[in-house]
Design goal:
The termini are close together. A hairpin with a 2-residue loop joins strand 9 and strand 10. This protein has no helices and ten strands. It has a six-stranded antiparallel β-sheet, with no helix packed on it. The chain is an all-beta fold. It binds FE2/S2 (inorganic) cluster.
């Protein structure tokens, strides 16, 4: 069952943050309308999405350039064909939390 995890101070990162928990990696993204979380591993060959370029709510994988919708995890450009998982987030008491 998913639990809430305290990740980072809300003002502790600029646009992206990588979070490791129990051998799993998460990418935290700050967009203009809120904070979002996805799996950090690209669904193509597991490159870290938190190192990717963010353009208009999408993240480009740094390895081969697949594009993912940060809000939904949907894949928008090849070579990836599978979405990445997204996670519920909240900001509480000045900290970002994710439910995973
Ligand atoms: S590893 Fe991300 S597109 Fe290939």
């Amino acid at each position: 069952m998913a639990k809430w995890h305290k990740v980072v101070a809300e003002d502790g990162f600029k646009t992206t943050y990588c979070f490791f928990h129990r051998r799993k990696q998460f990418a935290i993204f700050r967009l203009e309308d809120g904070i979002y979380a996805t799996d950090n591993s690209c669904s193509h060959e597991y490159s870290p999405l938190c190192e990717g370029m963010i353009v208009e709510g999408d993240v480009y994988c740094p390895k081969h350039g697949s594009r993912f919708d940060i809000r939904t995890g949907a894949v928008k450009d090849f070579p990836a064909t599978r979405p990445v998982k997204t996670y519920e987030t909240k900001v509480e008491d000045g900290f970002v939390w994710i439910k995973a």
